[in-house]
Amino acid sequence: MNATTMSTRQQVPRGDKASHTSGDKIVQRCFLMNLDQRPDRLREWMEQLPQPWPLPEPERFAAIDGRRVPPPAHWRAGNGAWGCYRSHFLILEKCLSEGIDSYVVFEDDAGFGDQFGNRLHQFVEELPDDWGMAYLGGQHLYSVSHPPVKISEHVYLPYNVNRTHAFMVRGRTAMSALYRHLHTRDWKKANHIDHHLGRMIQRRYFGIARRNLGKGAVAVYAPDRWMVGQLPTRSNISGRRWSETRFFNDAVNVDHNDEPFFAVLGPHRSGTSCVAMIMHHLGVHMGNQLGGFEATGGGEAVGLIELCEKAMKFPATDPTIGDAELTQLLKKFIVGKKSEAVRDESVAGGKYPHLCRFADQVYAAIGDSLRIIAVDRPIEASIRSLQTRSHKNRGQWYAAGDRACERLQRSLLHHREKFIASHPNVLVHRINFASLTSDPRAEIVRLVKFLGIEPEQDELEAAIAHVNPKLRKHG
Questions:
Q1: Are residues 178 and 246 in the same domain?
Q2: 169 with 101, same domain?
Q3: What pTM was estimated for this model as a whole?
Q4: CB-based contact 64:33 (threshold 8 Å)
Q5: Are 239 and 283 within one domain?
Q6: CB within 8 A of 227, min separation 6: which ones?
Q7: What CATH number does residue 284 fall under?
Q8: Are residues 276 and 235 part of one domain?
Q9: Rg of the chain's alpha carbons, rounded to an integer?
Q10: Sheet containing 427-432: which strands, arranged edge to edge?
Q11: Closest CA to 156 of 180, 181, 131
Q12: Burial class of 6 by CB neighbour count within 10 A (0 to 12, 13 to 18, 19+)
């Protein structure tokens, strides 16, 4: 494969205040993966390079086009992912065969953050002596249950890093281990190269002490905050286009504390399903698989239903598991939804009546990133509606006697209002269900402002069309 050297880029002067280390002392070579048919991506990448450039002169590496080079029969991740994998593999193979002992590779959608040179040198100076691979950009996966471990102020030990738009590799031992790992056939179904690399990182995570790496292991590290994101260009693999350079969850912010979570709170049969589905139509990430009891959709993530029912089986009014366990379960679910929402350039939300009772635990899990959408409907109407549903579904797990229904409904409303009153710092948006059904457009426009999103016109119209004015007959 041909590797064409780009026009000369300015290196960091040895006397520059930003660093005392020249680029070739960080790594020997710098590669940019770029498809021959994407000169636009090459031009955009070159135009946004930080100056002075702290790394060796970038060399364009003609990337493999998975549409022209067909994948083998066992490959299940798509042509674009095949081309990405083969391109990274061939760069590594080139370095091994030519005696190149270290390199950095960028994909042509890599965008640089502020003070890239300064931050890169700061990161490199703190890297442990054993480092074999260092991500400059990416996305931390499974970070709630396995958060990155702090090694120094600017260096973390990751559990699993997704995305391959910017990373460094160093040392023959590490490069050989990486080569063998990429050459194995034990790839999971539909995995991309970043997923396969993530499995390699996971195997080392629990052996945090670097002296216990074991044979064939690669010491992998990540910065406290990503210094390379992804440019607003259309992905060659997913086809998505973003509006600005995207930086994913940093090691110091793996919980996505700076991303909001919109909890739709209200007793059963109070209009919360209608509001949740409105949010779904507006593009809010309410879950990957939605369920519920409404014919038009309940807007409830199946995973959230299972979590809540495990903690407090309908029609109980108090959880049967401890606060610490419940908080951890909620945190894992919510942070996962936030991560998916960030990936899809959206915001996350969730709805299930039990969340009224679990508001304190939700707040303990995600703090001030909690946003509440309180749906108001006369409690007597909600009680009657739940009782009616129970009468129609006798014997089902979601049916209860009249007294149990009333006790549950009043308990949920009480806990919601108690939480709101005791947490004035939490932002609350109230929706009167009667007003929503009588003038859905006005109420939905208000909701959109609270969500801070800009839905497409067809999304807005779909949200409005979801509201059934006949629902007003229930009170």
A1: yes
A2: yes
A3: 0.63
A4: no
A5: no
A6: 112, 113, 116, 119, 120, 123, 136, 137
A7: 3.40.50.300
A8: no
A9: 26
A10: 348-351, 261-265, 370-376, 427-432
A11: 131
A12: middle
Say whether both 306 and 411 belong to one domain: yes
For residue range 110-156, list pLDDT tens digits in order: 999 999 999 999 999 999 999 999 999 999 988 877 889 889 999 99
- Please tell me the distance from the alpha carbon of residue 378 to that of residue 474, in angstroms, as a whole number: 10
Domain that holds residue 430: 261-474
Q: Residues 155, 131: contact at Cβ < 8 Å? A: no
- Return the percent helix, strand and coil in the chain, to nearest 5: 40, 15, 40
Task: Please state the domain count of the chain.
Answer: 2
In a shared domain, residues 39 and 73: yes
CB 18 within 8 A of CB 24: no
Are 296 and 165 contained in the same domain?
Answer: no
Instruction: Read off the CATH number of the domain in which 28 is found.
Output: 3.90.550
Neighbouring C-beta atoms of residue 125, cutoff 10 Å: 14
* Residues 169 and 218 sit within 8 Å (Cβ to Cβ): no
Distances (CA, A) of 300 to 120, 304, 397: 43, 7, 17
Task: Give the CB-side neighbour count of residue 396, counting CA atoms within 13 A.
Answer: 10
The letter for the amino acid at 54 is P
Query: Each residue of 31-87: pLDDT tens digit?
Result: 999 999 999 999 999 999 999 999 999 999 999 999 999 888 888 889 999 999 999
Q: What angle do CA 186, 218, 4 make, to 5 degrees?
A: 85
Are 222 and 334 part of one and the same domain? no
Show which of 253, 278, 303 is a domain's final residue. Answer: 253
